[in-house]
Design goal:
By secondary structure, the protein is α/β, with parallel strands linked by helices. Helix content is 27%, strand content 19%. The chain has a domain of 245 residues: Aldolase class I (TIM Barrel, Alpha-Beta Barrel), CATH 3.20.20. It has a 13-stranded mixed sheet. Strand 4, helix 1 and strand 5 form a beta-alpha-beta unit. The structure holds S-adenosylmethionine and iron/sulfur cluster.
């Protein structure tokens, strides 16, 4: 399995930018401009979801190779001041395992222009931290929860910790974080049959469920195109209990297709559900993302085969504009799409936990 090619940190081999327009924005050759930054704060996690991490055997980044809180805030500052970043989502690994998360969020919230700040988390420990994170400036969260049945949760995450996640969601609500979205990945024969119950559970609590198609980003390579649960399957599974109608809202660059949900038996409106069909209905043409890994490398796509290091520049005295220039050049090389639909598609070496979902 080929490793991602990392441009030499000291002398990055960057894409040819001779035809790049003279703009500060993070544009690419396909006319897209990135305004949405996904920033991974760690590759470590306290769960071992089967579609993401292996049961054992991963080595995690040593502390000194991860970006410090100050380095994270500086890179985000460069992003918002010089590159047109408007939204920042912290992810991982599990971002709550960083004790300095509050400090990072406060630093980003103090930037001008202030970006929208969100977090994707498994919610373990969120009950004790939600209020401080909200006070620091966190605007929104997505909690990953694939099942509300303890046995299924443990089978999926390899940890008996459903009660901790539920406590975390309660804590987020008590802290006033709103909306709270729930991300669910469906695995065939494991939790797909539970989807109507999971949606009911979320609607009862005014949580917005987002069903995400499983992507080939797992360490164990369990993904199979032929058996994955597709967006079309999701409609079929939900159809027995609910009626889904496309929501009357422009999608913009958002990955989720939104639907209004009604009870099939009573016709009562219950709320909304989102379906993220990354595999079967890719939205690459409208992608506004740029990504940074926990060690400070730009990835222009989840499925990139190349990464561009910014940490060396950061730690060797480069100016903000020099770092912005490397980032712009890396983004210029963003591919048209993730290529999952091509016969020569090769799964990236890094699992999702080490990229930042
Ligand atoms: N640990 C946090 C969490 O689980 O929310 C943040 C990191 S996790 C990698 C971010 C998101 O990626 C989660 O919602 C998770 O469900 C999703 N994810 C992980 N592996 C995936 C895969 N193979 N396909 C689709 N989504 C995946
Ligand atoms: Fe951890 Fe999130 Fe990956 Fe699950 S999906 S193993 S919670 S990083």
């Amino acid at each position: 399995m080929p490793k991602p090619r990392v441009t030499d940190p000291a002398a990055p081999q960057l894409p040819d930018t001779s035809t790049r327009p003279d703009t500060p924005a993070l544009v690419d050759t396909f006319g897209r401009a990135a305004s949405d930054l996904r920033l991974s704060l760690t590759d470590f996690c306290n769960l071992r979801c089967t579609y993401c991490m292996p049961a054992s055997g991963l080595t995690f980044l040593p502390r000194d190779q991860m970006l410090s809180a100050d380095e994270v805030v500086r890179l985000v500052r460069i992003g918002v001041e010089r590159l047109g970043i408007e939204q920042v989502r912290f992810t991982g690994g599990e971002p709550l395992t960083r004790p300095d998360l509050d400090r990072i969020i406060a630093g980003v919230a103090a930037l001008t222009p202030r970006p929208d700040i969100s977090l994707t988390t498994n919610a373990i420990g969120l009950d004790t931290r939600a209020a401080a994170l909200k006070d620091a400036g966190l605007d929104r969260i997505n909690v990953s929860l694939d099942s509300v049945v303890s046995e299924t949760f443990e089978r999926l995450t390899r940890r008996p910790l459903l009660h901790r996640v539920l406590k975390g969601i309660d804590g987020a609500r008590a802290a006033g974080l709103d909306p709270i979205k729930v991300n669910a990945v469906l695995l065939p024969g494991v939790n797909d049959h539970e989807l109507p119950d999971l949606l009911d559970w979320c609607l009862d609590r005014e949580l917005q469920l987002r069903v995400i198609e499983q992507m080939p980003l797992d360490a164990d390579h369990i993904w199979e195109r032929s058996s994955m649960i597709t967006a079309a399957d999701v409609h079929q599974i939900l159809e027995g209990r609910f009626v889904l109608e496309p929501a009357d809202e422009p999608r913009g660059g958002a990955p989720a297709e939104l639907y209004e949900v009604r009870d099939r038996s009573t016709g009562a409106h219950r709320g909304r559900v989102g379906i993220i069909a990354s595999v079967t209905r890719p939205f690459c043409a409208d992608c506004r993302r740029t990504r940074l890994t926990a060690e400070g490398r730009v990835r222009t796509c989840l499925f990139s085969r190349e990464e561009t290091d910014l940490r060396h520049a950061l730690r060797s005295g480069a100016s903000d504009e020099e770092i912005a220039t490397i980032w712009r050049a890396a983004q210029w090389g963003k591919k048209a799409g993730h290529g999952m639909d091509r016969p020569d598609f090769v799964q990236p070496e890094r699992p999702m936990s080490a990229i930042g979902g």
